[in-house]
Amino acid sequence: MGRDWRERSRRVGGAVLRRARRGLTAPAPPAPPVTTPQQRQDARVEEALAAVGAVEASDAGLPATTSPVALLALDRVVRRPDLPARLTHLVPASLRGSWEGRAGVRPLEAPVAADAVVLAKFDLGSRVKLRAGYAEAGLALAVQPRRADGTSGVTGAARSAEMVNRHVPGLAPTLHAVGTLDGGYDWLVEDWVEGEPLVSDHRLAAHLDPLLERLAELHRGHGVRHARPAEVWGESFLQQWGTVRDEGLVSDAVGGAVARLVAADRLLRVSWTHGDLAASNVLLTDRGLVVIDWEHAAERPVMYDGARLHLFAADPARTVGRIRALWGGEPARSTYPPEQELAILHARLVCNAPRRLARLADHPRREIYVRQLARQTDLLAGLLELPPGPLPTA
Description:
The chain has 13 helices and 14 strands. The protein is globular, with a radius of gyration of 22 Å.
């Protein structure tokens, strides 16, 4: 294995350096056919390091190097052997700590200055998504592939940085630079946030009220408008919900209740949302709560974020009560009550399940997603005051 990885290290390092010298061209030249999961992972690590090296070689304000740096790779993480402690929360919890003697660790070399590079959790697309950390500089890099419409996660994050810090200063990291790579990637550089992620549901529960209050400030600052489900999603919602029912992911009672709720076509509140409000993206710092990773941010129904918080709550019933109290809004006959808004957004997220389960067919995180989906369908049934439906199968 050592000889194979020394050869791969030379190829990775040479590829990164050549692309940096060519002028920010991130994609690799045609690679040998990928035939095994490990080869696929190796190819994605190579592409990720190429993208990081290309951004560092630009005027992004990041540290840079042209000399090979000794690195270690394990699963979706590449890091220096002596990873600085301040970057610990960049690395998934299951991959933290010493890697000495750990199975699957692979040495490699590449001319990149980042202390750690982490590929996206659900790495399903044809191109990589990544975050990298620079401990001494106190900076973080995000790289996202550009979509067909010319936008990317960087687009939402850059817009959020300006908007969030105008309306709720300090809620999001300070943005320093944004840019593009020739191969269809966008990137951003922002402050590295020193803090502890609220990674347990109990820690998140302890700080739920200040988080909801600060997000409510963002809603007020951006403005809240009203829209009907048909205006937000067109006919696709009920069509996709039909697929959920056909595949038996919810009970007949839940399926019918959601269909009637959406068909009522009352008004939902719409404002700026984070889009991925998991506990790991909420950090407790010396200056209060900071929310990171705004790459999924967009204008959408406010209960999208509420549904994410409810999904990961230690006490779901209390969470619904606090959401009602702090995000309740003014009741009106033409609007959905908060619990029904929350139910609709849970259902909307469940609509992603058939496609996502298919894409995760052989992915190691499929079982995690199945458990999450089972919890979400149970919470949805609870909001509708109906018995839980069948468990999705792994």
